Amino acid sequence: MGVVVVSGGSTGGPAAAAGGGGGGNGGSAAGSCCDVSLKCWCKWRWGDHQQHLLPHRVFSVFSSGFLFLLGCLIVYGLIGVIYGWLLFNKPYVPNGVVGLNSFGCLEDGEGSWSVGVFYGDSPFSLKPIEAANLWKNESKAWPVANPVVTCASVSDAGFPSNFVADPFLYVQGDTLFLFYETKNPLTMQGDIGVAKSTDKGATWQQLGIALDEDWHLSFPYVFDYHGQVYMIPESSMKGELRLYRALEFPLQWTLEKILIKKPLVDSTIINYEGRYWLFGSDHSGFGTKKNGQLEIWHSSSPLGPWKPHKKNPIYNIDKSMGARNGGRPFVYNGNLYRFGQDCGETYGRRVRAFKVEILSKDAYKEVEVPLGFEEPTKGRNAWNGARHHHLDVQQLSSGEWIGVMDGDRVPSGDPSHRFMVGCASLGAAAAVIIVLGLLLGAVKCLIPLNWCAHYSGKRSDALLVWERSNLFSSRVRRFCSRVNRVPFSIRGKVKYNTWAGRLVLAVLFLVGAALMCTGVKNVYGGNGAEEAYPLNGYYSQFTLLTMTYDARLWNLKMYVKHYSRCSSVKEIVVVWNKGIPPKASDLDSAVPVRIRVEKENSLNNRFKKDEMIKTRGVLELDDDIMMTCDDVERGFNVWRQHPDRIVGFYPRLISGNPLKYRAEKYARSRKGYNMILTGAAFVDGTIAFGRYWGEQAKAGRELVDRYFNCEDVLLNYLYANASSTKTVEYVRPAWAIDTSKFSGAAISKNTQVHYGIRSRCLMRFTQMYGSLSDRKWEFDGRKDGWDL
């Protein structure tokens, strides 16, 4: 085969080289990008007599590739939309969820910090506030749970905030004042906010912004000296360490003096052995390791003048070693302790505690000691699941220690990281589409033909002369030609009309779909956390209770692993009805699991009184129901608004003459319900268990034992019998899966028999406790989605 020589702008050369066989080879050229010879030349054999067919052929090639790419984009786009709808769609946002409609809590690259309260007998035995089991009817928190101060609670008080961090306590008798950094979403800089509590930190009243300057402020260290209250906020952007004095505590402050003309960050002062010591970090120096530097200054007064320590910088080490301050230094049992930040994995990953062994004008030594803080195990569903970088501890007049710690559920820079990962995934999905097109022959070329060497199309003489004299351009065109030979090599190895080829295509398609879903999740799916919903700015917790037996152990393991990671779950109680129970250690749980072994196999055990349950809210949830933590959290929020009702996810309508038990579809068709199945429902444990085991319910419990069925129906009748108002509330889940269908261990295998027994229960319970058929509540369009 001869070599084609392209000269000038003429197209005659290729036709002459093709000879009389132009018609046959021309058809081949139209159907492929390049005709590759043994010498790997990229050739186009187009005869002069074929010039009139060029527009049609180009249109055919481009139209097939364009339609293929468009079709793939539509298919993958639909996959992404469906995935996003299934994963991120929330049927509704509950009432009482504050902060969501206010200007605040915007996604921020610095994080989503919030503040929690901890109690302990010592600063090294602090437990979160929920462990204290404080109940507050005003905030409908039974018990109160962390976090107690968030961007939502600050924003809804009228002070927009993206996050709150760096908390410091100021104790004034029985009143606690909390000073903290709050990031203003308008100015995108930190201000100093303040809140007040009169109940040991269980609830907080937002007082306002204590200090607002033209530069970023944070780390508001507050202390007393000679009857005055002072504050040293971080003002490193101003380039100096500034001391403020309260004019009218806690909201009015004035600049007292500039302590040190250095951009020190996270500075604290403590009086130790008759001298004042200032700890801070200066990250502005040449060779300084950010978040790994520590300096010490000393003075006879907190007002100065301050002299540098002879060993400064005390540290200039790796940022994970805790050099940067992480809170207020304190004295405990005669020893001085300092908190430092571990910024190794991400900024503010954790707080580390150090015991100071030597502190003098010319020497310093400290050793790390255990902090005694239990790391959260719920991942991003925990408010402090990713990091906590600041802790302030104070001893109350009662002798008890109280601590305030900030926490974040995501690492630093999470929005940017997710966006980059999402874009990379979408780009990879587009690459998979192109590979599919190459394998199927719909995409002919990877690079436009006029970029290739020996392109036979018409180009200007001046351009050709420039290309011949430009070595780089020639090499680029040769490279493009080689790239365009890749599709032929791939199609030669993978035959799409064989089983192996079809398998390769199927795998590629699934990989592309997975990449599309990953991209959608990272770009549009938020931080991936299924957060708890606050009610009027406060959080609480509930106990999850399930009843099972040995044949459903695999259900239980999956159940515990999933639901224990839900934010508001405090404890899981397993009512074990039959068989040898597992050990709690056999279950992968992020919360305590208590297995309550029953003496007899009875469905009444589900509602047995249990004095060990420490929460008011109890979620009765069958071990074969799987739903999202977000659905569970929404249901819990609705129950907190209506704690006197059965709040659940499976509605039923009891009506007709004679009474007949029917599925949810019947309630939907009648657009109303009067019963909630307790296989997935929140109840007030004290009320529900008390009613169920009362003397009035004895005949009903006997019927449940006789039929081994209907315990949930009985509880609904008992609630209705006790009140003339609404006693049930429906919450629509985004989705729910019955896992017993996959195991064959379903309790009610024969639906008709099961419904028949329940119909008999309805008639008997109606005789005992009155009718439900005269009650009916319509589905709430906002909650249910039917009338939207």
UniProtKB/TrEMBL annotation:
Keyword Transmembrane helix on entry: yes
Keywords: Disulfide bond, Manganese, Membrane, Metal-binding, Transferase, Transmembrane, Transmembrane helix
Protein name in UniProt: Glucosamine inositolphosphorylceramide transferase 1
Localization of this protein: Membrane
Cofactor: Mn(2+)
Record membrane topology: Multi-pass membrane protein
Domain Glycosyl transferase: 542-780
Pathway the protein takes part in: Sphingolipid metabolism; Lipid metabolism
Gene Ontology MF term list: glycosyltransferase activity; metal ion binding
Similarity-based family: Belongs to the glycosyltransferase 64 family.
